[in-house]
Specification:
By secondary structure, this protein is of the alpha+beta class. It is built from 6 helices and 5 strands, in the order H-H-E-H-E-E-H-E-E-H-H. Strands 1, 2, 3, 4 and 5 form a 5-stranded antiparallel sheet that branches. The structure holds zinc ion.
Length: about 190
């Protein structure tokens, strides 16, 4: 199966870029469409947003890890064109100030997982990233990173069976190993 990751990202000269990339061309097309819808919807609500980071290389991930800006040493969902950091635009400058719960609502209604609750607000998450959205569940991440899974156009993380398994895994039963929800892609804040 050919994927956007194989066909576009890996062939792009920026795939090894050590610097931040905000180009939506490196977002998987459905992710890109949903991100653009969210930004338009926020604009209609009177909130100006901007894309802060789309694709992220392993080189940049390692640098952010070394700087303590992420808990994930190896590539995250950003590396696959399936995650985007969306911040406020204040006079053209990125801003992380204020409440981003509206972004969570827009993400949810668009079919993107929000880093403010990782798709499950009933769980106490140890790590939150209020400007991050992604088009896969946390439970799918190991398969994504292993190269055995990539979402198709029809994929919606909120109807993903493995999302339900993830929620079930959060129950006190000790039989399942701990999901990797604490080791998710982080947002670099103002490190770049
Ligand atoms: Zn992010």
């Amino acid at each position: 199966m050919s994927t956007f990751y194989d066909d576009v990202i890996l062939k792009d000269p920026r795939s090894a870029s050590p610097t931040r990339i905000a180009d939506v061309a490196l977002l998987e097309p459905k992710t890109r469409q949903l991100v653009q819808q969210i930004i338009a919807a926020a604009q209609a609500m009177g909130v100006s947003l901007m894309v802060y980071e789309t694709y992220r290389s392993q080189a940049r991930q390692q640098e952010l890890f070394d700087n303590g800006a992420t808990k994930l040493r190896s590539v995250g969902v950003h590396n696959y064109g399936l995650a985007c950091d969306i911040v406020r635009a204040i006079r053209g400058e990125p801003s992380w100030k204020g409440d981003f719960s509206f972004l969570g609502q827009l993400a949810h209604s668009s079919g993107l997982i929000w880093g403010g609750d990782w798709g499950d607000p009933t769980i106490q998450h140890s790590f939150l990233d209020a400007v991050h959205v992604q088009r896969c569940t946390v439970a799918r991440q190991p398969a994504l990173f292993a190269g055995t899974w990539y979402p198709d156009d029809a994929y919606n993380p909120y109807t993903d069976d493995s999302h339900l398994l993830f929620a079930a895994a959060a129950s006190p039963k000790p039989s399942r190993s701990k999901p990797a929800r604490t080791a998710v892609a982080s947002h670099p804040r103002k490190k770049s």
